[in-house]
Amino acid sequence: MTFIINGEEQEIAATTLADLLSALDYEGEWLATAVNGELVHREDRAGFTLGARDRIEILSPMQGG
Amino acid sequence: MLKLYDTEVRSRLLLGTARYPSPTILAEAVRRAKAEIVTVSLRRETAGGKAGGAFFELIHALGVHVLPNTAGCHSVQEAVLTARMAREVFRTDWIKLEVIGHHDTLQPDVFGLVEAARILTGEGFQVFPYTTDDLVVAEKLVEAGCRVLMPWCAPIGSAMGPVNPMALRAFRAHFPDVPLIVDAGIGRPSHAAGVMELGYDAVLLNTAVAGAGDPAAMAEAFALAIDAGRLAHAAVPLEPRDMAVPSTPVIGKAVFS
């Protein structure tokens, strides 16, 4: 299925958000995820079914002022 | 002690974590500043979740409180979503709320700021709003549930120092019971001492330390200046006068002619 991941179009074989993170080798508890502008909590990723062209944001900590 | 929402800290210097020459120098700056609160951010992860994790482990090892920001957000929707994602990652209700309204000056969009603050306090966030020195906006932020205010003293990263001390003085007088942190625009320790002399509770810095030739030494210099300014405020400084006043008593002075 085609998704927009962090602003880039990608073709990934995944049906849930947890599948997608795993397929892309994202790991660690320091990730936050949102789909189509809504936060998806860590514990909800496995049950969150994705649709074609969903916009997925994957964020992690970085330096800030 | 400085009480920010339910948390008490001894240090009056909140330190940003960006733009340091290296992680080691960042850590040393935090130590020499004796900072207890550092600001952090969230960005798109591109390395399988490992780059952000490494940075957060560095911060975690410092044993400080983390204040996530919504830097770079230009809309209420962006800022609110970023705050929610920050809470997910950093597991804190604190959020340094920035809604940027102007590309060149990085001036806050104060209308969006108040709206976002209202939404976030309604969700249990403890909001630290980056705002201007406008009293009316600040009143709206307090009405929205903010229990800390963070007015700028000059544009972010400008290092200009307080461009409108009169406004900062009025701001302090208008909110005697709200913790006030000067956020943005400070360039030198003397600027920080100056706002502390006005009675501000703390200072938030980043570029002035990270961009110095020796960031760790500058961090310590700022900490000393902030303590000096606070002590001076408590000691009640003299107000400026138009005319000279002799410091040496004239009574008993010899007359030679």
From TrEMBL, chain A:
Cross-referenced InterPro entries: Beta-grasp_dom_sf, Mopterin_synth/thiamin_S_b, Thi_S, ThiS/MoaD-like
Organism expressing this protein natively: Shinella granuli
Superkingdom in the source lineage: Bacteria
Matching PANTHER family: SULFUR CARRIER PROTEIN THIS (PTHR34472:SF1)
NCBIfam families: thiS (TIGR01683)
A Pfam family assignment: ThiS
Protein name: Sulfur carrier protein
UniProtKB/TrEMBL annotation, chain B:
One annotated Gene Ontology cellular component of this protein: cytoplasm
Binding site for 1-deoxy-D-xylulose 5-phosphate: G157, A184, G185, N206, T207
UniProt xrefs under CDD domains: ThiG (cd04728)
Alphabetic keyword roster: Cytoplasm, Schiff base, Thiamine biosynthesis, Transferase
EC annotation from Swiss-Prot or TrEMBL: 2.8.1.10
Chief place where the protein resides: cytoplasm
Catalysis performed (reactions): [ThiS sulfur-carrier protein]-C-terminal-Gly-aminoethanethioate + 2-iminoacetate + 1-deoxy-D-xylulose 5-phosphate = [ThiS sulfur-carrier protein]-C-terminal Gly-Gly + 2-[(2R,5Z)-2-carboxy-4-methylthiazol-5(2H)-ylidene]ethyl phosphate + 2 H2O + H(+)
Compartments, as annotated in UniProt: Cytoplasm
Example GO molecular function: thiazole synthase activity
Superkingdom of the organism of origin: Bacteria
Listed pathway(s): Cofactor biosynthesis; thiamine diphosphate biosynthesis
Thiazole synthase ThiG domain mapped to chain residues: 4-249
Entry annotation: catalytic residues: K96 (schiff-base intermediate with dxp)
Function: Catalyzes the rearrangement of 1-deoxy-D-xylulose 5-phosphate (DXP) to produce the thiazole phosphate moiety of thiamine. Sulfur is provided by the thiocarboxylate moiety of the carrier protein ThiS. In vitro, sulfur can be provided by H(2)S.
Family indicated by similarity: Belongs to the ThiG family.
Assembly, per entry: Homotetramer. Forms heterodimers with either ThiH or ThiS.
PANTHER family from the UniProt entry: THIAZOLE SYNTHASE
Protein's UniProt name: Thiazole synthase
Gene name as annotated: thiG
